[in-house]
Design a protein that fits this description.
Blueprint (H helix, E strand, L loop, with lengths): L5 H13 L4 H5 L4 H25 L2 H6 L2 H15 L4
Helix pairs in contact: 1-3
Length: 85
C-alpha cells in the first residue's frame, strides 16, 4: 500500500490536533508544522516497515488476513499497549 496522499495526511494531522487527548502535544511547545512532520514520518515509517510487520506474523495469519485486517490488528495491539484502549 502506498503512503497517504497530501490530503489524507492533512486529515490525519487535523484529527490529531483536534482530539482533546492530544492537547498536550500543542501545549508542549511543538508547532503545527512539527506535528505535521511527525504525521508524514509516521506514514513513511509504516510504508517502509510493512513487509517486516507482515513477515513477523504467523504464516497462517499472514496468508489468511487481508492488508486492512492486518492494519486493524496492528492498531488494536498498539493502542492497547499505550493505554488508549
Amino acid at each position: 500500500m502506498a503512503v497517504l496522499t497530501e490530503t489524507e495526511r492533512a486529515a490525519c494531522w487535523a484529527e490529531f490536533m483536534h482530539d482533546p487527548a492530544n492537547i498536550n502535544a500543542a501545549a508542549s511547545g511543538l508547532t503545527k508544522a512539527q506535528i505535521r512532520a511527525a504525521v508524514d514520518a509516521t506514514d513513511q515509517w509504516i510504508d517502509d516497515n510493512a513487509t517486516s510487520f507482515n513477515n513477523a506474523l504467523p504464516a497462517a495469519v499472514r496468508t489468511a488476513l487481508a492488508a486492512k485486517q492486518k492494519a486493524i490488528l496492528y492498531s488494536i495491539v498498539s493502542l492497547r499497549r499505550y493505554g488508549v484502549l
